[in-house]
Write a structure and sequence with these properties.
single chain; alpha+beta; ECO RV Endonuclease, Chain A
């Protein structure tokens, strides 16, 4: 558990800022990642950057590490040297959270046989026109649920014969870790404001500079 992050979730000012600003920022992320009305997979990376920027804003650049080696697949950011995984999903019911992205069925099976929770998690449930939230799930909570449910009930493999996009945490496991009494949550009402967004405007302006 990262004490500074735990305290952050109890800060009333931070809670209010997140509840006000995060829907707007995530809406922008969707607009930036859309083409012909369809949201691309890159939206996940933009969302991660938004959450990492929150940590930089609160803890300072020197305490937040974002340039991490690709070998640390589960880790998206480090705060005070401690690793954190950032997961975001969209939907009324929290589900479909990827533990690893892979289209290789053999690698997916190998991953499921060796996986164990290894770092704290920030989980964001986006539910447009409804309620979702942002959760801080300490590693100890994930380990406890993993040990209680067992590997087969914690990890969901893609169905055979389909085009797999990754290995997921099961609905049962996800519900257990986000409702644990040591998990911190900030509930969010996800509403979209009308935004006049032009993806080319800033690039056109840069082309116009001398």
């Amino acid at each position: 558990m990262i004490d500074e992050l735990y305290k952050l979730f109890d800060d009333k000012n931070v809670q209010a800022k997140i509840q006000k600003r995060l829907p707007h920022m995530f809406h922008l992320a969707e607009l930036e990642s859309s083409r012909a009305g369809k949201i691309g997979m890159q939206v996940g990376s933009v969302r991660e950057s938004i959450i990492s920027a929150l940590f930089i804003y609160k803890f300072g650049e020197k305490n937040v590490e974002t340039e991490l080696p690709i070998t640390e697949a589960e880790v998206d950011v480090k705060i005070f040297g401690k690793p954190i995984s950032i997961k975001t999903v969209t939907g009324k019911e929290p589900s479909g959270v990827k533990l690893v992205w892979t289209v290789d069925a053999i690698k997916a099976k190998e991953f499921s046989e060796t996986y164990k929770p290894s770092c704290d998690m920030i989980f964001v449930q986006v539910n447009w026109d409804g309620e979702g939230g942002i959760y801080y799930i300490p590693l100890e909570v994930q380990k406890k649920v993993f040990e209680k449910l067992g590997r087969e009930k914690y990890i969901k493999l893609p169905k055979a014969g389909t085009n797999p996009r990754g290995v997921e945490i099961t609905k049962e496991a996800l519900k257990a870790i986000i409702t644990d009494n040591k998990t911190k949550e900030i509930l969010i009402k996800w509403t979209k404001a009308i935004i006049q967004y032009n993806p080319y405007k800033r690039w056109v302006e840069l082309w116009g500079e001398e």
